[in-house]
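USER: I would love a firmer grasp of how sequence relates to backbone shape in proteins. This is the protein in question:
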Amino acid sequence: MLALIQRVAQARVTVAGRETGAIAAGLLVLLCAERGDTEREADKLLAKLLRLRIFSDTAGKMNRSVQDVAGGLLVVSQFTLAADTAGGNRPSFTQAASPEEGRRLYDHFVAAARAAHPQVATGEFGADMQVALVNDGPVTIPLRVVPGALKD
């Protein structure tokens, strides 16, 4: 499972001119399920991003998590993170989970995030979305949890 995490001052997502989710300071999470991913990978990825210390403490050092700062999460599905561009100029998305499996894992991730964190907003799975954000820092970090390579 892949995620691109962006520390934001604010972010929002709209679909057909309708806002589906918005947060103030927190993390924009672009999320992609790959073939072979399960709920276990989704849970590990969520645990990692909730503990990721990328917010500044009083000394200005990145030492606080999104939970420490009571920041929001805006979770947006983005299968294009699985793009393979090695074979030419047109990306291949064969490593992305099927749409049905991707939706199931996205829904699982969002439900788990809502159970673990007080402020979770979302995009709309499979929709043509417009994402607006103010990247804070900027801080942008890729995260990946590979099936079968998990440590408890």
About this structure: Helices lie at 39-51, 99-116. The chain has one domain: 2-86+95-138. The beta strands are 2-15, 18-23, 26-32, 55-56, 62-64, 72-77, 120-122, 129-144. The radius of gyration is 15 Å.
